[in-house]
Amino acid sequence: MSTDVLIVGAGPVGLVMAAELARYGVKVRIVEKTAHGSNQPKALFLWSRTLELLDRAGCGAALVAAGHKVTAGSIIAGNKPMGRVDFSEVKSPHPYALTQPQAETEHLLEAHLASFNVKVEHGVELVSFTDSGTTVSTRLRHPGGAEETVESQWLIGCDGGNSKVRETLGIAFTDHELKSGWILADVHLSGLNFPPTELVSYWHENGFLGFFPRAEGLYRVIADLPLSEDQSPTPPSLQEIQHIVDTRGPGGITVSSPTAISAFHINERNVRKYQSGRVFLAGDAAHLHNPAGGQGMNMGIHDAVNLAWKLALVIRGLCGPDRLLASYNTERHGATNQVFANVGRLTAVSIMKGQLAQATRNAFGSVIFGLAPARRAIADTLTEVSMGYEHSPLNGSEDRSFPGPGPGERMPPRDGETPYGSGDTPRFALCADPSAEVNELLETYAHLLEPQLRPPFGRRCIWLVRPDGYVSIVALDPDTKVIATFLDSLEKGAVKVA
Ligand SMILES: Cc1cc2nc3c(=O)[nH]c(=O)nc-3n(C[C@H](O)[C@H](O)[C@H](O)COP(=O)(O)OP(=O)(O)OC[C@H]3O[C@@H](n4cnc5c(N)ncnc54)[C@H](O)[C@@H]3O)c2cc1C
């Protein structure tokens, strides 16, 4: 049986990828080797930018309704408050972090996918594939052992850290190992002197201790273990967790009734190539994050959003493959490395050992957290709203002297506006005042542009915004030539669909 795109793996990334492509009218199949989704205690946090991207997909509201809002994060060093980051000041329709067990997120994403009449084929495993250059031929094994060959235009490996797709392509992970072990426990918790809308981190001389609320009285507790080369630390008992909480916390906190306890070693990994021929990698198949940083699933969802609109434009014969699809690798590889750097810095600081180093860290930390702009920058980084594609090959202009968001930057969603890229076809948006030149653009590129203009961010400028809400071009009104040239370059090589 043939399809436009075959997606392997129905974790959060595969589910968003399938739903985004289906929403844009692309024929997809999605196979998942397990009979049911995972019940492992994995991702807890969905950050503001991810929720914005899921709003445009049409499923943000369902996730928000089911999750728990965390509006601030505090750091306590020793017994002294060091700083408090207020997510409610983040300029986003979602000024908070949403916590929710990954299994529930997957359940809601699968229901969203079903709204496009696409069902996950559970119990179906990718066995092998070959890319002929014009199609991909994939062997699938069904429950009971029957095998099937699927011909698809494109194959996307969303098949997790042990990706068979990545292995078959012969693409290796480049490692960045942080030699630290961590424990994680989902527990009932009492005695914490903070509201359940606030995450709290303690920087103790023995190490880090974090309390991440999942609901009133339900918390994820995370702590680092003493430095060791041990790649597979042993999950602790509840008593051992209580001991760490007593030692590193403020006292008076009781943990009980754990629903999950695990231990892990941090090993951040990224691949250099997110695409090989007609095959793509996304999510954990392409990059593995430090679970304590809470960014892995979010980054995978951003991969899916980034690739889906590009692939849909190519498959629908509206754009050529070269410029658009090559940008997926550049943009997402760069974004992953940026997150590694940010989270790596924060982790290294949190688990710093030695009296002198800790004293210096705490003194320096108090100064930084005392500065409102620094606190805002930290909140914007954590919630991913400051993330963008500054060096993207899809930035059609480099000029950053104009007011408002520049090329590669996120166009902040505005009250009452339809999210960029929503609907059933991926379209760029023009934020501009009406003029003869702008009207001509709308007519000439009606298949690539939203039919209605959106208000510009400042006078005398035109913004061209991508379907994922990042700016491509800022031009001086009425210079629409730079926009026309850019759109022509995207169309080059388009294979018209009959
Ligand atoms: C303890 C812990 C805490 C975490 N906390 C956070 C957090 O707070 N925030 C965050 O953003 N991230 C967090 N993460 C990371 C997050 O869980 C992962 O990044 C996320 O699961 C990646 O999603 P994925 O869809 O890429 O891969 P996966 O979730 O691994 O899904 C891959 C799917 O592919 C299927 N599959 C594999 N091989 C095949 C095959 N051959 N054929 C068919 N199907 C196949 C698998 O069965 C699986 O269902 C955490 C991780 C851990 C371990």
What's this, in brief?
With 498 residues, the chain is of the alpha+beta class.
Keywords:
binds flavin-adenine dinucleotide; Glutaredoxin; 498 residues; eight-stranded mixed β-sheet; 31% helix; globular; alpha+beta; 28% strand; FAD/NAD(P)-binding domain; 3 domains; D-Amino Acid Oxidase, Chain A, domain 2; 12 helices
Helix content: 25-40%
Ligands present: flavin-adenine dinucleotide
Strand content: 25-35%
Radius of gyration: 23 Å
**How many domains comprise the coordinates?**
3
- What is the β-strand count? 22
CATH topology of the largest domain: FAD/NAD(P)-binding domain
Name the CATH superfamily classification of the largest domain: FAD/NAD(P)-binding domain
Mean pLDDT: 93
Count, helices: 12
Q: Name the overall outline.
A: globular
Provide the CATH architecture of the largest domain: 3-Layer(bba) Sandwich
- Helical/strand content category: alpha+beta
Instruction: Flag low-confidence runs.
Output: none
Q: In angstroms, what separates the terminal alpha carbons? A: 20 Å
Main sheet summary: 8 strands, mixed
The CATH class assignment of the largest domain is Alpha Beta
Structural commentary:
This protein is α+β, with helices and mostly antiparallel strands and 498 residues long. The chain folds into 3 domains: 2-44 and 101-171 and 275-349, FAD/NAD(P)-binding domain (3-Layer(bba) Sandwich), CATH 3.50.50; 175-267, D-Amino Acid Oxidase, subunit A, domain 2 (D-Amino Acid Oxidase, Chain A, domain 2, 2-Layer Sandwich); 393-498, Glutaredoxin, CATH 3.40.30. It is built from 12 helices and 22 strands. It has helices spanning 12-23, 48-57, 60-66, 102-114, 164-169, 238-248, 296-315, 321-350, 355-370, 372-382, 436-444, 481-491, and strands at 2-8, 28-32, 45-46, 68-70, 72-77, 80-86, 97-99, 121-122, 125-131, 136-141, 147-157, 173-190, 198-204, 207-215, 218-224, 254-271, 275-276, 279-281, 287-288, 429-431, 461-465, 471-476. Strands 1, 2, 8, 9, 10, 11, 17 and 18 form an 8-stranded mixed beta sheet that branches. A hairpin with a 4-residue loop joins strand 9 and strand 10 (136-141). Helix 1 runs parallel beside helix 4 and helix 1 packs parallel to helix 7 (296-315). The protein is globular. The two termini are 20 Å apart. The model has no long low-confidence stretch (mean pLDDT 93). Bound molecules: flavin-adenine dinucleotide.
